[in-house]
């Protein structure tokens, strides 16, 4: 690489981080935000997240949404009241996360296993 090419690379690479999207912490859905962000229980809620949290409610908890998940009434009412009173918290969807995992692992996965038991056994998918 010539000096001119090296200088051009240095200039371009110093600009590059400004053009990249924001980095996000990615954790498995089985981890609570409180486990991931130790300050989640006491940190002030970032104002920039309010729209995302409202959109999440509108998409998955609002009973009129086409994508509504069958959450218990207490979870829906708790989150709905928090949004209505503008009392956002980083952990306000924790109970919904836990209930989603229960719906997936206990209800849906068990039904899947029952529906396809003979095929699973014939292919020895879960045999050691």
Automatic annotation (TrEMBL):
Annotated transmembrane regions: none
- Show the InterPro entries listed in the entry: RGS, RGS_sf, RGS_subdomain_2
Q: Which domain of life is it from?
A: Eukaryota
Tell me the ranges covered by the RGS domain, including all copies: 54-113
Q: Which Gene3D superfamilies match?
A: Regulator of G-protein Signalling 4, domain 2
- Give start-end ranges for the coiled-coil region(s): none
- The protein depicted here goes by the name 2724_t:CDS:1
This chain's source organism reads Gigaspora margarita
Species classification: Eukaryota, Fungi, Fungi incertae sedis, Mucoromycota, Glomeromycotina
